[in-house]
Automatic annotation (TrEMBL):
Main localization (coarse): mitochondrion
NCBIfam families: L29 (TIGR00012)
Keyword check for tRNA-binding: no
Subcellular compartments: Mitochondrion
InterPro entries assigned to the protein according to its UniProt record, in alphabetical order: MRP-L47_sf, Ribosomal_uL29, Ribosomal_uL29_mit, Ribosomal_uL29_sf
Pfam annotation, one family: MRP-L47
GO biological process, one term: mitochondrial translation
Family: Belongs to the universal ribosomal protein uL29 family.
This protein's UniProt keywords: Mitochondrion, Ribonucleoprotein, Ribosomal protein
CDD domains, alphabetized: Ribosomal_L29_HIP
Any GO MF annotation of the entry: structural constituent of ribosome
Listed name of the protein: Large ribosomal subunit protein uL29m
GO CC entries: mitochondrial large ribosomal subunit
Amino acid sequence: MLVSRIFGRTLLAAVRSETSSATAAAASVTRNPLQEFFEVDRSIDDDKPVVYGRSWKASELRLKSWDDLNKLWYVLLKEKNMLMTQRQMLHSQNLRFPNPERIPKVRKSMCRIKQVLTERAIEDPDPRRTAEMKRMINAL
């Protein structure tokens, strides 16, 4: 009886420690939603310059479906909000915004998505559907 109590307590303590370590790991993975408005900090010791991509071409966007363009629009919107927030925050601290050329790339891509969607709306033979698509595009 004594052995089973000691063994049970040891087992219970081991389970609790595993549960607490798993909870701590999960807590470290979850992020505050407001952190999405800020870019992940790089270490200052990095000597390599960070290279960012180019804007999307209209010919590439024409190959994508409506759903893909919608998803890409919101990814770009999130990126634009993150960049604008970071720029404003650094400006208020009298610091230089790194890589300011990223904002025009995002804006160009967003304009090109609207252009491609407008082209698709114009090509649609149904005038009611064309008008509805144009209203949705203008709401973006």
